[in-house]
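A quick aside before the break. I want you to see a complete sequence-to-structure record at least once, exactly as it would be stored in a machine-readable document. Don't worry about memorizing anything.
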Amino acid sequence: MSGSYKAHFQRFIEAAPGRLHFAAHSHHYWPDVTFDAQVQCWQDAARLTGGKWELVLGEVMPEVQRGIARHLNLPDPASLAFAPNTHELVKRLLSCLPAERPPRILTSDGEFHSFTRQIARLEEDGLAEVTRVPVEPFDSFAERFAAAASKGGHDMIFVSQVFFNSGFALTDLAALLDGLPAEPFVVIDGYHGFLARPSDLGGIAARAFYLAGGYKYAMSGEGVCFLHAPPGYGLRPRDTGWYAAFGKLTKAGGSGIAYAEDGGRFFGATFDPVGLYRMRAVLRLLEALGLDAAGIHAHARALQDRFLAGLKARPSPALPLERLLLDPQKLPCGNFLTFDLGGEAAAADLHARLTAAGVASDYRGSRLRFGFGLYQEAADVVDLLGRLAAL
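That is the input. The structure line, written in tokens, reads:
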């Protein structure tokens, strides 16, 4: 395992020194550099008032775009648009689909709420036709999903890189596009993949959208989500704000509504730029530390392996190892482990007991999740195992 990175997260650690925070997949600790970045945002606003936008849009945002593009191997940083949350970006994507009939959407039954709730509501009123491919069994999902996509007739194909309620990861994103016609939007939800697993989009950047944000392993907090938009897809979203007219403008189709030709066409309107400041600070820190997604994932995997080995050596009645939903040594997994406790009441009970013991975790239905990140080290896993044994 790589060395310890806890020294870079002291403000969060010292704010609750008795807490063992194993919910990195839910609310990742922010490194200390983000505190200074947040102050810098305030100071820039005081110094420049309305003139701050030239700095934000001309310096801060382009640096963040370059950093994201570097980690994802995107050919053009300008293909990235930002929004306060992924739901806002999902709505813009949906607004590009046919309006004369219900759009046909192919997805899985394991997508996050920002997408599933919205399409379920549209489906309720007959405004969308949705086909959902079950994620389980995991070992055949990629083949089953590709087979469903190859049947054609879809306007949008939406799937997670790492599924939020299990941790199961798709490792060959390019394979999803093999044999597909050129028409449908292909959208990859990378929120649990960005800076959690190596993600090379270089080969699919011209064909697939990619959606992620700062709240999880990008360690940047709320309000800074992004969308990579491939050229030629979604040129004129109906859900649009005036920032979408910045940059090089075009009046496609003779319309009077102008759009940027790059990813800026998916921008909304005025936003709080502080998330961009925090993300810029994180990207600078990672560069200084020589860390990329591969290094972050290796650190998390080493902690996961130590945790599972500890449960095997010292079984916990509170958390039986046989409840592990998927073994990261057998199937590709994100940076969290999921235990299916057989019922929501059991998961809620164990979550409450862990909280009382000073351990942060979370649960979704019957599934309890433990997330691993840079602010943890081997001693924290040992402490976690001890607190589990005491339960």
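Two observations worth writing down. The two ends are 28 Å apart (CA to CA). The chain has two domains: 6-22+292-390, 35-285. We'll return to this after the break.
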